[in-house]
Amino acid sequence: MKDDLFTFLKGFAMGAANVIPGVSGGTIAFITGIYERLIEALKRIDVTTLKMACRFQIREVAERIDLRFLMAIGIGVALSIMTLAQVFKKVMEHSPTGERALWAFFFGLILASLPAVGKMVRRWSAGAVVAGVIGCAVAVGMAFLSPANESSNVFYLLLCGVVAMCSMIIPGLSGSFVLVLMGNYKLIMIDSVSALGDGDLVAALKVLVPVGIGAVIGMLSLARLLSWLFRTWHDVAVSAITGFIAGSLVIIWPWKDKVVEGFAKGEGVKEKIVGYENWHLPSFAESGTWLAVGMMVVGAGLIVLVEWLAKRGKGAGVGG
Q1: Domain match, 186 and 263 both
Q2: Cα–Cα distances in Å, from 122 out to 116, 234, 256, 315?
């Protein structure tokens, strides 16, 4: 029961993180130590599991896909999105000071996690170092990409689903931000969803069905690929992800300017971040700077506290 509670809390944190541009639930899963277990559980959702389910072998299915673990994560994510994530969303939409403070909190959280994440690499070989540098460079480069043009081609929509789902699984990458870069955020997240709400099922499903199929393909295929990488090239895979998370700090850095584009949504306008510019150091003459710095320290301190409690718990276990 205690393990289930901790898993639920990690899922809750994953759901909250998805609201912050540049922070993904995969990042939180990685730095809290449940990422590889999550990938293994997703990998086992396959034809064999489906056949077992059709034979009503419920207990065997639950054991095979680590259902108790997935449910704790899923409930945590869902509850977070319905509660805390909605609060975060409102803060980011209506309070520039609060938005910067949230960015700062997650920046401190992730920055302080990097040493512990790096320790997951068992041996820093040349290959692991190169993989880390490449991962970091790719993440940094994404912050400077310009959005592509919109396309409703069915194969491109399938690709959008695959890439968006992969970006949600890969730590350090935001799925919605990737859709913006691919040029189809408005088509998928606004136009098709609005069409669904207006009762135009044909228009909505023409977009959502290919994206959904792509998302399922992306989730199952990437889970298998990552599982194989962790088993075969563990240090290289962990190093690449560590580099990717480190590079994503460029996107999360609180003191920068957003490039925002407005998308018509019904009678209103929905704004979406399409990029960033003008990275700069904080000015302590500005209001809210001390709050942001304080939140950065709180985020880093939280990781330090968790690691200290974990070491203390292990020490107590050994002594007993």
Answers
A1: yes
A2: 12, 8, 35, 22
